[in-house]
Amino acid sequence: MNVRRDFLGYGDSMEIPVVMWLVFGGFAVGGVCLAVQGWRIGRQSVKTPGNWLPTQGVVVRYHWKNVARTGNRDQLAFPVVQYAGPDGRHYEFISDVTIDTGIYRTGKQVGILVDPRAPGNARLASADATVKTTGCLFGVLGCGLAGIGLVATAIFLFVVTR
């Protein structure tokens, strides 16, 4: 479906495809959705309370889980970290974040956050930072796409309605 309008007042006509409206609107709507998803991802990092204690742990092995993806069987590696809690006892936890085994090799020291009220409850400190960074990246990209879509739509409307 095309709409015909006079273009720049010279009597010429310009065909304006509806596809342009869909593209610009898609940028705007897609950008807003991406920004909202970034905000939601960023909020997940808040789940680690600020009173958790930073300490060091050692990756002792990996817990492997089978995951079916589009017909293929993949294995994801979850590091098992051992650490000494604030009470002096040794604890072990399986990270809830899968990582590349080349990043944290067995025997490598890693930063962790430990709950002082329940020393057996811990998580990788870098996982928290990764979630924040990912949320921020999605938010910035989403706002950028939404801005491009809205500005392009405004310019398009200005040219069409002249």
Give short descriptive properties of this protein.
162 residues, alpha+beta, two-stranded antiparallel sheet, 2 helices, DUF3592, transmembrane, DUF3592 domain-containing protein
- Unreliable stretches (pLDDT < 50, length at least 5) are none
Structural class: alpha+beta
Specify the number of helices: 2
Q: Total number of β-strand segments?
A: 7
Largest sheet descriptor: 5 strands, antiparallel
How are the secondary structure elements laid out?
Elements: E1 2-6, E2 13-17, H1 18-44, E3 53-69, E4 72-84, E5 90-94, E6 109-114, E7 122-124, H2 125-161
Antiparallel strand pairs: 1-2, 3-4, 3-6, 4-5, 6-7
Architecture overview:
The chain has 162 residues and is an alpha+beta fold. 40% of the residues lie in helices and 33% in strands. It has helices spanning 18-44, 125-161, and strands spanning 2-6, 13-17, 53-69, 72-84, 90-94, 109-114, 122-124. The radius of gyration is 25 Å and the shape is elongated. The protein starts with a strand and ends with a helix.
